[in-house]
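Sharing a chain and its predicted structure for anyone who wants a worked example. Both blocks are below, sequence first, tokens second.
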Amino acid sequence: MAEVQQAPVHALLTDGTIVRIRPAGSADRGGVLRLCGQAPAGEPPWFPGRRALVAEHAGRLLGVAACAEPREGTAAELFLAVADDWRHRGVGTLLVEHLADAARGDGVTAFTADSLCDDHGPLALVRDLGLRVTRRADGPRMRCTIDLAETEDYLRAVDARGRLADTVSLRPLLRPRSVVVIGAGGGPGSVGRAILRDIRTRSFAGRLYAVDPRATLLCGVPARPAVDRLPEVPDLAVVAVPAPDVPAVARECGAAGVRALLVVSSHLDAGQTGALLAACRRHGMRMAGPHALGLANTEDGVRLDATFATHAPGPGPAGVAVQSGGVGIALLDGLTRLGIGVSTFVALGDKYDVSGNDMLQWWEDDGRTGLALLHLESFGNPRAFSRTARRVARRMPLLTVDAGRSEAGRRAAAAHTAAAAARTVTRQALFTQAGVTAARSLGELLDAAALLHAQPLPRGPRVAIVGNARGAGVLAADACADAGLTVPELPAALTGELLRLLPEGADAPNPVDATASVGEKQLRACVDLLAGHAAVDAVLVGLVPTAVAAATGDDLVRAVTDPGARPRPVVAVLPAQAARVDLLPARGGGGVPAYSDAQDAARALAHAARRAAWLAQPASPVPALPDVETRRARTVVDSFLERNPEGGPLDPRTTAALLGCYAVPQIPWAWARDEDEAIAAAERLAGADGRFVMTAYGPGPAHLGAERAVRLDLRSTSRLRAAHRELVARYGDRLAGVVVRPVAGRGAELAARVVQDDVFGPLVLLGPGGTPAGLPGDREGRLAPLTERDARELITSARCAPVLFGRGDGPAPDVEALGQLLHRLSRMACDLPQLAEADLDPLLAGADGVLAVEARVRLVPRRGNDPHLRRL
């Protein structure tokens, strides 16, 4: 059994303390023995052992977890010890989580452990892990067997522990009782001075200090020459010193006991950033930044505005997290103009510690946030983000800007962040699966935020359009169609009611032309009727100023906003409005979003409709799969990589063996080393119509060339022999053998592909067959593991549905079998991090099932990281 090879990581305890988890070494012997209460002569046989992890804080050993060699099958004995004064803080649970992850990688499926029946601590730890546990009493001792399978119950338990630890650790940063600004002495125009002045003048509820070696008072705030000379240890330090000085300041803050840093300093080089992060980890400080605009919390007991934005945000339900300071200022200004207040604002900057995932967990539990807005140029742990986002999006709208869609945009994002930017198809898969509303611009983000904040969700895509100008109605209808909404013809009974309400000359097929002479009361009654009718999911009201309304004194806009509460969303389009979007106050509170362009209104409604559809879907499980042989698949992979340490594409036989471990249906085929074996193979395969395909392969894994290495439609023994001789003549000694297979039957031709993204993990793609592997834009994608809903959405996507269901000349394809194949590819990719890519193209989907006709697999030496494992 191999020693634990994982690199040291930092993680949070339940009280927010940062500890370091690392493999145990020989230098830890004495510390481990002290933890176990043993004399050196009684060294336990499992230490230093083959699998042991320790937790440490500030150089002190807090706990050790180890497992011995498996005694029976794949069950390993678990040993755990935690320092007495660090118990009940989550040290043991965290160690067991990390040890279980390391053990799973070596095929261990269960831990066994003994404890006294009245020893509640170990039993409580085992019970609270979330793993399946069986217990057997043996006299005064209890024998526990812990199943290491990552069930949904276990992942929920890990989520709960992580969320608790994360929110506790963020309190000094986001809800500080005392703050110090370091670097405010640079002059009236310096960033540090601006932040100090804003914190003071904007009524911070806590205690405020400054550090400056030359002053005792700055902006009316007491100043001291160093952090350790302050009258108390502040919760939060705002660091605004030149880049070369940042690491030393961080170390001073950590040594003094500061719990959190907001680093607004910018242009740190790699060495300075590394030293800054190391200081934060060593001293257990959470950090926003560097290169951060600042943060704000409008909570009554806090009222902290530690930004250098021009205007302080007002209190409200919107949580905002951004990487770019400029984007943050624009969002704050836009929300202020709309009258939407902010609960918490954080500029994450280069995002070396506190991330979007942290902020989601904070907003989930802060009791104040009801609308979350994110601007993330990159993702550190996207699979953990996805899991958190799915949970948070059930409770509140979660909106983001889909930044970095272009190659230039990704380069710019990667230039100033700690994590990698992702390709569009991968990022869009994340947003779709997690229920995130993804806009393409800041303007579109604010458009959607105004609607989701102020109006109920539509129950579907059907929009009723009403207005006082026919041309504006036509434009609105086109905009709805462009956004994927429908403008259905209204039922006859509803049309009749509308015509009775509206002036003579009105027309009500949808769009409803209320005419320029419509009055305020008539329009209000019309909108009320439409917003309450079952044939309508949303109402779009388009109004242009007319002399008629001016002459009669009618306020048509008031007809839209009064009354304010209607059962279905109502939006206005006001072409004469100066602002792109405004939130019109409505009677009784709330508001009606008004847009200057129908395209903006339609896109906002489409976002709302997609959110409603996502919420209406029940939680979808990842299905259990029969006939999966994960251990055999890992043996196939390990064997290949032993022979090919650099990795590479698999030969046909190894490819078939690996796909067979996951019961992926493949077309019958045979390997032939010479002409006679090729003829014998064809006789065994006996194609349905006597036609065969022959593909040449070299001594390496890949076939030789492209079209020139393939011979098609071979209908007789003589043609098979001639084809083989042609390939021998062309390739000579480079020809190792050929694959012979029958010509595939009829069916919808698709391409299914799995790729391992270095940041996002495995991505499953499905699209029309024949798409070049380098052009994933023609394929719909979802991140693995696929849920039942994910597979269904891939199959019914706009790219795949026309291929599968657009043929009227034959029976419908077996959609269930196609879904099963997608789940098997997903499982294979999740089980095998070494799987760089697998391409099934063509993949035939027919009435009798699905069949992989051609399969290409490439492996690379790589160890996977469990995205659910708690670590910073």
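Comments welcome. Residues 202 and 348 are 22 Å apart (CA to CA).
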